[in-house]
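Re-run with default settings, no changes from the original entry. Doing this only to confirm the output is reproducible before filing.
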Amino acid sequence: MKTLFALLVFLLFAGGIVWLQIFLSKKNNKWFGLILPFICLMFSLLIVLNISTYNSIQTTVTETVDGVVISEETKQIESEKPGMLTILGTIIPVFIISNIPTIILLAIYYASREKLRIRNQLDKMNIQDLE
């Protein structure tokens, strides 16, 4: 039941984002439609920049005797410095995957703007026909 509710909330949220993107893209000012893709791009850059903060591993060692915890110790293990190929092999797929919402919102933006452009051209033709 909880997963169904979570799915419903997610779908409503995603539908609201798509509706908002279409609404903003149809505005006369073309910059309004680029607000949500810009926000998504900034979040994806934040994700990529946060990859560098995970260069150590924290482990907890617990000693137990007959189910009773005797000692618990947390160790910080520093990982070795990765090479450039390893870094790029991690960053590029994360950047591409985290930009999927940006790509979808830009596709909605360009589709909406194209419809708006065609409608404006038809209005100009109708005005010229009336003259």
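The CA atoms of residues 56 and 118 lie 55 Å apart. DSSP finds four helices and two strands in the chain.
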